[in-house]
C-alpha cells in the first residue's frame, strides 16, 4: 500500500547511532521548511533516501520540488529543520564534489563549445575524471566541438549531464532533466542515466511525468504544496487498483446519485454520451449498473498513469485543504 | 538473545566506511588547492574573453585605431606637451578609454553571467563565491592591462615621446588604478537591468563620458566647465599627471590647469557614487539573484 507521509516516521532506521546515518544514507531531511515571506515553498518535508536508491520527486508546478533540491545543493538554507547529504552538510558534500546536478536554469556560457564548457568547469573542481570520458558517458561526445549557442535544448541537457558526472558523484540530482527533449533524446538520456545508476550512484530526479518516474525510479515521492503526500515504491504508487468504468447512461436517476451511493461522489465525469467513473471497486459498480439496468456498453480499464497522478494529487488536495487554508499559489522557480 | 542484541547494536559500526567512497577513489591526481582553482578559473575566463571578438574589438582594437587616427597620424603630434608630446597625450587618452571599457564590461558581464545561472553551475564546483569574485577581478585587471600595453607599444613605435621611462610606467599604472572604479559602473548597469544588452549599452555610454572626459578632443569654454564634473575627466587627468601635472591642453587661448586635490576628489566621489548605486541595486535584487 501507499504510505501516507503522516504515518511513515521512518521506523526501521530510527536509532540515532552515529555510525549508521553517514554511511548508509544519501539524504536525510527532518521537518525541513523553506518559506519565502508568507509563501511556504517547502512546508515540512521528512525524507530519507538510502545510498543506491533511485527516487523520483513528483509533483505539480509549485509543489516545492525545485526549492527542495536547491536546499540539497546548498544554494538555500532551510528556514527550519535539518538536512544532511551523504552524512554531512549540503555545502560540504557539494564542495567535495560528491554531489552532481543537472540544473533547470540556463547556466551555460553561449560562446564556449561543449567540450570547452566541460573543461572550464572541470578546472574549477579539486579533482575530476577526464573530460572526454564525461562527454562520452553523457552521450555528448559527438557534439563536443559545437558552440553552446548552437545546441538544442536536448543537447544542452546532455552537456549539463556531462558536467554533473565530472566528479564521480555519489549523489546525482536532476531537476526535470528531459524538459525540452524529443522522444528519442529522452530515451537516450534515460539509457545513459541507467548506466550511471548501475555504477551505484544514488539518483534523485524531479519530474512532471509519472510515466518517466515509473519507468526509471525505484521509489516515488510525491510532493504537493511543499509536503510529501505519497512515498512508496513504483508498484505501490502506480498499481493503486484504480480503474475506470464507462458506459452509456440509460437508467433512471443520475450518475451522480449512483456515485454517491458507492462512496465516490467526486469521481464522475461525462465524455460525450458516456459517463466515466473512477474507483477501486469497479466490480460492485458494474453489478449495480447491470442489475438495475442503468447503463449499457460497459468498458472497464485500468486507470492511465496520468489519471493515477491526477487522482493522487486531487485526492490529497481535498485532504489538505482543511489544514492549509492559507495555501497560496506557490512559485516553483 | 543478549548476544543477538549486541550484534545488532554493533553491526552498524562495522561498515563505517571512510568519507571517500568507491566511486571517488577512481578520481586520479592530487586535489587542487583553492588558489589553484581560482587561478585556473581566471585563466580560462581570460582566454574566453580575449577570444570574444565583440569584447576585444572595443577594448583593444578600437582604442589602438583611434590613437593612430588622432595621435600618431595627426600633424600637430610632434608639438611638445608637458613632459612629452601631443602624440603621447593622445596615447594615454586612448589607454584610459580601453582600460575603462575593459573594467566596466568585465564587471558587468560577470554579474550577468552569474545571474543567468552560470553562478549556480560554478556553485557546484570547488570555486567559492569569493573565489569567483577574486577570479573575475584578476580577469578584469588582465583585460584592462591589455589595451594599455597594446596602445603604449603602438605609441612607442609611432612617435609618442615622454621624458623618462618613469613617466611611461607611472601613467600606465595610474590608468590601471583609475580604471578600477569603472568596474562598479559596469556592475551597476548589470545589477539594475540584469541583461547583457544593458552592459553593452553602458559601455556604449562610455563613449559620451569619454568625450566629456576630454579623451577625444581638447574641450574649451562651457563644455570644459561641465566636463570637469564628469567621471572620466578625473581618471584621464590623473593618468596624464606624470606628463602634464594637471595642465589642460587647449588648441588655443590661455593655458589652464587642474589642482591635484580636485582631480582626486572627482575620482573618489564618482567611485562612491557608482559603489552606492551597486549597493542599492544589490539590495533591491530578488532572492534568486
Automatic annotation (TrEMBL), chain A:
It holds the Pfam family ABC_tran. Residues 7-16 have a biased composition (Low complexity). It is a peripheral membrane protein. It is found in: Cell membrane. GO terms for molecular function: ATP binding; ATP hydrolysis activity. The keyword Hydrolase does not apply. GO terms for cellular component: plasma membrane. Residues 27-250 form the ABC transporter domain. Keywords: Antibiotic resistance, ATP-binding, Nucleotide-binding, Transport. Residues 1-28 are annotated as: Disordered. GO terms for biological process: response to antibiotic. It comes from the Bacteria. InterPro entries: AAA+_ATPase, ABC_transporter-like_ATP-bd, ABC_transporter-like_CS, ABC_transporter_ATP-binding, P-loop_NTPase. This is ABC-2 type transport system ATP-binding protein. The lineage of its organism: Bacteria, Bacillati, Actinomycetota, Actinomycetes, Micrococcales.
Automatic annotation (TrEMBL), chain B:
The lineage of its organism: Bacteria, Bacillati, Actinomycetota, Actinomycetes, Micrococcales. It comes from Micrococcus terreus. The keyword Protease does not apply. This is ABC-2 type transport system permease protein. The chain crosses the membrane at residues 55-74, 94-112, 133-157, 169-193, 205-224, 260-282. Keywords: Membrane, Transmembrane, Transmembrane helix. Residues 10-25 have a biased composition (Low complexity). Residues 1-29 are annotated as: Disordered. The keyword Transmembrane applies.
Amino acid at each position: 500500500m501507499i504510505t501516507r507521509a503522516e504515518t511513515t516516521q521512518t521506523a526501521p532506521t530510527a536509532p540515532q547511532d552515529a555510525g549508521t546515518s553517514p554511511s548508509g544514507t544519501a539524504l536525510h531531511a527532518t521537518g525541513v521548511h523553506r518559506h519565502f515571506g508568507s509563501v511556504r515553498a517547502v512546508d515540512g518535508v521528512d525524507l530519507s533516501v538510502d545510498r543506491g536508491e533511485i527516487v523520483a520527486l513528483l509533483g505539480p508546478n509549485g509543489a516545492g520540488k525545485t526549492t527542495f533540491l536547491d536546499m540539497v545543493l546548498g544554494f538555500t538554507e532551510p528556514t527550519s529543520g535539518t538536512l544532511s547529504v551523504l552524512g554531512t552538510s549540503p555545502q560540504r558534500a557539494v564542495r567535495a564534489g560528491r554531489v552532481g546536478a543537472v540544473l533547470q536554469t540556463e547556466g551555460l556560457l553561449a560562446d564556449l563549445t561543449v567540450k570547452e564548457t566541460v573543461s572550464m568547469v572541470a578546472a574549477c573542481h579539486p579533482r575530476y575524471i577526464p573530460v572526454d570520458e564525461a562527454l562520452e558517458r553523457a552521450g555528448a561526445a559527438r557534439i563536443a566541438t559545437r558552440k553552446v549557442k548552437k545546441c538544442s535544448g536536448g543537447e544542452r541537457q546532455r552537456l549539463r549531464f556531462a558536467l554533473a558526472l565530472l566528479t564521480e558523484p555519489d549523489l546525482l540530482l536532476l531537476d526535470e532533466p528531459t524538459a525540452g527533449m524529443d522522444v528519442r533524446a529522452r530515451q537516450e538520456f534515460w539509457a545513459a542515466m541507467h548506466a550511471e545508476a548501475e555504477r551505484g550512484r544514488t539518483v534523485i530526479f524531479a519530474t512532471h511525468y509519472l510515466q518517466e518516474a515509473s519507468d526509471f525510479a525505484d521509489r516515488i515521492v510525491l510532493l504537493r504544496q511543499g509536503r510529501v503526500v505519497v512515498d512508496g515504491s513504483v508498484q505501490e504508487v502506480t498499481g493503486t487498483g484504480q480503474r475506470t468504468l464507462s458506459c452509456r447512461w440509460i437508467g433512471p436517476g443520475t450518475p451522480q446519485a449512483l456515485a454517491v451511493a458507492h462512496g465516490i461522489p467526486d469521481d464522475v465525469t461525462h465524455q460525450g454520451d458516456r459517463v466515466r467513473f473512477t474507483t477501486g471497486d469497479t466490480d460492485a459498480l458494474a453489478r449495480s449498473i447491470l442489475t438495475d439496468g442503468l447503463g449499457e456498453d460497459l468498458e472497464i480499464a485500468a486507470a492511465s498513469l496520468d489519471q493515477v497522478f491526477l487522482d493522487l494529487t486531487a485526492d490529497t488536495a481535498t485532504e489538505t485543504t482543511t489544514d492549509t487554508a492559507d495555501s497560496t499559489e506557490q512559485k516553483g522557480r | 538473545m543478549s548476544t543477538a542484541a549486541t550484534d545488532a547494536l554493533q553491526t552498524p559500526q562495522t561498515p563505517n566506511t571512510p568519507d571517500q567512497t568507491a566511486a571517488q577513489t577512481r578520481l586520479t591526481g592530487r586535489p587542487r588547492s583553492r588558489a589553484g582553482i581560482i587561478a585556473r578559473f581566471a585563466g580560462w575566463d581570460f582566454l574566453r574573453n580575449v577570444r570574444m571578438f565583440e569584447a576585444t574589438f572595443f577594448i583593444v582594437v578600437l582604442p589602438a585605431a583611434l590613437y593612430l587616427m588622432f595621435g600618431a597620424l595627426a600633424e600637430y603630434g610632434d608639438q611638445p606637451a608637458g613632459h612629452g608630446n601631443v602624440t603621447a597625450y593622445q596615447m594615454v587618452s586612448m589607454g584610459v578609454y580601453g582600460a575603462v571599457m575593459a573594467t566596466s564590461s568585465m564587471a558587468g558581464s560577470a554579474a550577468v553571467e552569474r545571474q543567468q545561472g552560470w553562478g549556480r553551475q560554478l556553485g557546484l564546483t570547488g570555486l567559492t563565491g569569493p573565489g569567483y569574485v577574486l577570479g573575475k577581478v584578476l580577469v578584469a585587471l588582465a583585460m584592462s592591462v591589455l589595451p594599455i600595453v597594446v596602445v603604449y607599444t603602438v605609441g612607442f613605435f609611432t612617435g609618442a615621446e615622454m621624458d623618462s621611462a618613469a613617466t611611461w610606467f607611472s601613467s600606465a599604472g595610474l590608468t590601471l588604478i583609475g580604471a578600477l572604479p569603472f568596474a562598479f559602473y559596469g556592475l551597476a548597469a548589470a545589477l539594475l537591468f540584469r541583461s547583457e544588452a544593458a552592459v553593452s549599452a553602458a559601455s556604449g555610454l562610455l563613449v559620451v563620458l569619454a568625450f566629456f572626459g576630454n579623451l577625444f578632443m581638447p574641450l574649451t569654454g562651457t563644455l570644459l566647465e561641465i566636463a570637469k564634473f564628469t567621471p572620466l575627466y578625473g581618471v584621464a587627468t590623473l593618468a596624464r599627471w606624470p606628463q602634464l601635472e594637471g595642465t589642460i591642453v587647449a588648441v588655443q587661448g590661455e593655458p589652464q590647469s587642474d589642482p591635484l586635490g580636485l582631480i582626486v576628489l572627482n575620482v573618489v566621489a564618482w567611485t562612491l557614487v557608482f559603489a552606492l548605486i551597486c549597493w542599492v541595486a544589490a539590495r533591491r535584487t530578488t532572492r534568486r539573484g
